[in-house]
Amino acid sequence: MNYIQAKTKLEAYHQEHLLDWYDEISETEQSQLLEQIDALDMQLLDIFANYQQNGEAPRGKLEPMGALTIQEIAENHDKFEHAGLDAIRHGKVGAVLLAGGMGTRLGFDKPKGMYNIGLSRKLYIFECLINNLMQVVDKAGAFVPLFIMTSEKNDEETREFFAEMKYFGYNPEYIYFFVQDTAPAVNAEGKILLEEKGKIATSPNGNGGWFSSLVKSGLLNVLQREEIEWLNIFSVDNVLQKIADPCFIGATILSGCESGSKVVSKADPEERVGVLCLEDGKPSIVEYFEMTPEMITSRESNGRLSYNYGVILNYLFQTKKLVELLDNQLSVHIVNKKVPYIDANGNFVNPENVNAYKFEKLVLDMVHLQNSCLSYEVERAKEFAPVKNAEGVDSVISAQELLRQNGIKL
Ligand code: UTP
Fold this sequence. Notes:
Radius of gyration: 22 Å
CATH superfamily: Spore Coat Polysaccharide Biosynthesis Protein SpsA, Chain A
CATH architecture: Alpha-Beta Complex
Distance between the termini: 52 Å
CATH class: Alpha Beta
Strand content: 15-25%
Number of domains: 1
CATH topology: Spore Coat Polysaccharide Biosynthesis Protein SpsA, Chain A
Strand order of the largest sheet: 4-3-2-10-14-11-19
Largest sheet: 7 strands, mixed
Structural class: alpha+beta
Number of strands: 19
Oligomer: single chain
Bound molecules: uridine 5'-triphosphate
């Protein structure tokens, strides 16, 4: 894109201020800025204007959804596991590690997966995840292709770390890295912010951007060439995460559902976790802050909470369905954040309070695009040890304790 084209694109949305410092920046910065402008999705500005007028889109009719319980799974364990191992051995299953987040709550300045959670020895978060996946590989006697989504900010460091650690024993031929798309930040007037005179302030566009980013990076070819039918999507921060769990895969395939989600019974009604439910008859996730007091306390006749099954960011989606959905717009969530920027006088401002809005797509919204989803209950003490915070709930300490309980030497 040249300067004139960039100006025309920006003028249509009153964003020409992005070129205010064009004459002051180097030629390299100029071409990088033009590239950024070329990539800008201007639709986001319409979404922002609509959000300012109307707020977030209202939810449909929400209803509780049950789950295939731990007990039911145990009763059918061998059948499920056999079907899952069969799919893995036939190369039908891939796994997608979402590692493009900023991990701000943990306050670690490197990619979260590089955090050493060990005490007497080094045990990195990435290592925990690969160890968990290796258990399946050993059982199946086949490697599971692993797609790792990074962000522009942590891509290089993540790749270098994996290489330096010799992929923690995983076969690198089965590992594919790809970089997540970004979205710009805007101020309250809907003006896109510059973080430097020649650079638009951008950040990863939320974990829901994973499939379109994977496609953009050319990896759909690999999915199609290798005939990978199912993708297990999981987060970087749950060190007890079971990846490509044969039993979960088998149960989902045999259920005939289009997708699957691992869930845990809520620890208490107030637990701050998204809950799998039905929205207008289709699977969906309701966030804890969206639930009314009635929904939070409502119970079924057997005493179980009606909205009982919390999601742990471990989903199974079908490649063909994801391709079908590519043209469907995932909802864009607008979040208020603190973003450093260049002001109208060309000065760098590091704000003390939130001053901007970011655009995020969420993987949980992909669930609502499915016609059906197997809700698959797992034991939280065995499969859910998230590292979100430096201290307190879902922290390094709580995850270390859970690892210990599961016999993992720290
Ligand atoms: P979180 O919602 O915990 O966000 O991500 P975060 O950015 O990692 O952490 P905080 O909120 O700043 O502390 C859940 C999962 O989604 C991934 C994360 O890496 C994590 O595995 N994620 C999140 C992405 O891959 N991209 C994103 O843009 C956001």
